[in-house]
UniProtKB/TrEMBL annotation:
Catalytic activity: an N-acyl-D-glucosamine 6-phosphate = an N-acyl-D-mannosamine 6-phosphate
The protein's Enzyme Commission number: 5.1.3.9
Family: Belongs to the NanE family.
Keyword tRNA-binding annotated: no
Organism for this UniProt entry: Paenibacillus hemerocallicola
Domain of life of the native organism: Bacteria
Record-linked InterPro entries: Aldolase_TIM (IPR013785), NanE (IPR007260), RibuloseP-bd_barrel (IPR011060)
Matching HAMAP family: ManNAc6P_epimer (MF_01235)
Designated name of the protein: Putative N-acetylmannosamine-6-phosphate 2-epimerase
Top-tier EC class: isomerase
Cited Gene3D superfamilies: Aldolase class I
Function: Converts N-acetylmannosamine-6-phosphate (ManNAc-6-P) to N-acetylglucosamine-6-phosphate (GlcNAc-6-P).
Listed GO CC annotations: cytosol
GO terms for MF: N-acylglucosamine-6-phosphate 2-epimerase activity
């Protein structure tokens, strides 16, 4: 596995493509996501974000780009579901991810474990794996930086009770976190257009993660259809 510093350097000013599909969607399946990752690489992506050990392993076999892995799992005592415990993190690491993204919000975690405890356990599991902190607020981002996250991502902005949903990317959060001048900030969430991407970079993003706008044809088609219907 490449040195984590080299992996992070390779992401600078690049596009990371999130290759994910829900079970009820036609593109669901590891073979589809692996093909999507290869297409993303051919298009110039610098990394892939993927969910589940199966998808990560399939993409690893087909595509040489670094993988930001997650494993979404729900627990009855917590609303945290993006790689919520070490159990999921280990499976992501074993599948071949270079980076593990975790929910880094301040919400109660499964079993009452703290974010600090999880991050320390991941580093003990494999010091060579980078940790991406998915946050929804400035406070959460600062906390994750102080705990030693390798990257901080705005993934959860607008999707937690502590944050405000908006139609566009959270440019303000990107700008606030990037202004700290420390941990690299990844922009993710509702990046639909080239202009969105540009504004994220202008706000100080180290890299951008684009998912639905690239890899979910059903949702992409639906946006065009709804736009036409509104014009009638």
């Amino acid at each position: 596995m490449a040195d984590i510093g080299q992996v992070i350097d390779s992401l600078r000013h690049g596009v990371i493509v999130s290759c994910q599909a829900l079970e009820h969607e036609p593109m669901y399946g590891s073979h589809h996501m692996a093909a999507m990752a290869v297409a993303a690489k051919q298009g110039g992506a610098v990394g892939i974000r993927a969910n589940t050990p199966a998808d990560i392993a399939a993409i690893k076999q087909s595509c040489s780009l670094p993988i930001m892995g997650i494993y979404k799992q729900e627990y009855p005592d917590s609303d945290v579901f993006i790689t919520p415990t070490l159990h999921e993190a280990k499976q992501v690491a074993d599948a071949g991810a270079s980076l593990i993204a975790v929910d880094a919000t301040l919400r109660r975690r499964p079993g009452g474990q703290t974010l600090q405890q999880l991050m320390q356990a991941i580093k003990m599991l494999d010091p060579g794996i980078g940790i991406v902190a998915d946050v929804s607020t400035f406070e959460e981002g600062v906390n994750a930086m102080e705990l030693g996250a390798d990257l901080v991502s705005t993934t959860l902005s607008g999707y937690t009770p502590d944050s405000v949903y908006r139609e566009e990317p959270d440019f303000q959060l990107i700008r606030q976190l990037a202004a700290l001048g420390g941990t690299p900030v990844v922009a993710e969430g509702r990046i639909w257009t080239i202009e969105d991407c540009r504004q994220c970079m202008e706000a100080g993003a180290y890299a951008v993660v684009i998912g639905t706008a690239i890899t979910r044809p059903r949702e992409i088609t639906g946006r065009f259809v709804r736009a036409i219907q509104r014009e009638r």
